[in-house]
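Exercise (ungraded).
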Amino acid sequence: MSDSTERSRTKIEEAKDKVIGAIAETMDLYGVTPAAANLYATMYFKDQMTLDEMRTELGMSKPSMSTSVRKLQEIEMVKKTFTRGSRKHTYVAEKNFFRSFMVFYCQMWEREIKMNMEAVEEAQEDFINVIKDSTSTPEIVAEAKQYYDQLEESKKYYHWLEDLVASIKSGKIFEFLPKDQQD
Amino acid sequence: MSDSTERSRTKIEEAKDKVIGAIAETMDLYGVTPAAANLYATMYFKDQMTLDEMRTELGMSKPSMSTSVRKLQEIEMVKKTFTRGSRKHTYVAEKNFFRSFMVFYCQMWEREIKMNMEAVEEAQEDFINVIKDSTSTPEIVAEAKQYYDQLEESKKYYHWLEDLVASIKSGKIFEFLPKDQQD
DNA sequence: AAGTTTGTTAAAAATTTATTTAACTTTTTA
DNA sequence: TAAAAAGTTAAATAAATTTTTAACAAACTT
């Protein structure tokens, strides 16, 4: 390989590494481990990879790659592919950021909605019982009512978030905010 | 205090704790420490709090409260208030989840857009240089072009995310997804 | 201005999380 | 079906983060 070819290869690798570094750095804000973040960013520039290729490329242990790839599959940023001829499993990175966005945030928000709404509903029932309890003093009734109302108000937000998730899942949000705008 | 009053008070506390637990649990997915998550959730049911009240209520150290409250101020989930008569600082929790949502995700997404777009722009320049380099072999030019195109495609997503942030900041998104829907 | 209270910074301890090594299970193929 | 290869689970180690204790700085009171 000639000197200039080698120099070009190096430049390409350096350019990729800039993007890999940026993606990996922002990704651990998404609740994945550094290993998983690095792995995804690396796979972003690859067609497909096996566990052994991942281990070699990142210089990490195989179980670490196995765990990372599973976590990435959970948030659908990596998918398993069938490659005939090879008995090793092969994986590909989701390269469409729109899809990653949709899956990740919908998952996150649905979890939040479910968990918080359940607690809110239960708590509201409790407050109603206190309000209906004939032995409750006026002060206590007033307090319970105030908390009940605060929770009722918060439900508006969770309903809105539900709508947001639905519009992302259905793709309706792209009618409001087109994927390709002309500025 | 009568038995039944005491029982009602306990029920109110239990009801609040359900919500506090749920909020705290979902919040540490938002990148805050357990102490900060618990603190915010606790403050959600309080008018205002001083550092000493926080320490007493959560049974944690003062520096921990100080750090947590600062972190919560950064993401604008807590604000400092002036209470004349008291020389202690007092803080209030943002109780409008819409506002917390806007500040948190806009901050998060703007950081992601900035960091990744900068890397993408730099990398694209590098790829262009390789492509323009007269000593580059056809294979190398093809490879550089492919990566360049992949990054160009990714910019559509970042532009879309910019639009999403803008529509959240301006409130325009609520024309598309109203805060109070009637189902 | 001295003393006291409040809040912050810095170093240390404790806890949690991430990664690795080693053992084990499953799958493949010969 | 036995041997080998691939992948996963579990325990142990390592690393990073969170929290606390202790020392310090700033602000208020008298």
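Further reading is listed at the end of the chapter. For now, observe: Residues 50-52, 62-63, 66-67, 70, 87-89 of chain B lie near DNA strand C (CB under 10 Å from a C1'). Chain B touches chain A through 67 residues (CB under 8 Å).
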